Amino acid sequence: MAEIDKRIKLHDKTFELYIPEEQIVAAITEVAGEIRKDMEDMNPLFVGILNGAYMFVAELMSKLPPTCELTFAAYSSYHGTKSAGIVQELLPIRSNIKDRPIILLEDIVDTGLTMQCVTKRLRDAGAKDVRVATMLVKPDSLQCDFKPDYAGMEIDNEFIVGFGLDYDGLGRTSRNIYKIVE
Fold it and tell me: What's the predicted TM-score (pTM) here?
């Protein structure tokens, strides 16, 4: 087994190990179990939110039945380490959502504003039910009345990278999560 890097450098920032892969995978396994129980016989459409959620989506979907339908969408509100506060749709959902339960798969719920906006858009477009499953949530960063339906872990208000999360394009491919060293 490969040794875990305790620190990594990305661009001009240094990051230290925050959450090891084993802890991440265990949390995702729990989320998958909750979804399986809640969605039994409901045939939801799973929507992975790119780019950050791709590793979460792959891990989660591998723990769900192969009959689950998956598509992707992309929204953005981040640049660098800060949220811009404006949600842009970069890649729309290309599947029919009308009268269908939707589960959005997000890497992290930070301010909650992006998911609040997207869930409202999908409900307005005729989705039967819209739920959010996230790998991570930062309760102290929430800026609205939004709570994900499924959350792998709650974390402190740290800027993190790894397991899909990036700093200006770097760090996504790490199987561990690292926090910034100020």
Answer: 0.92
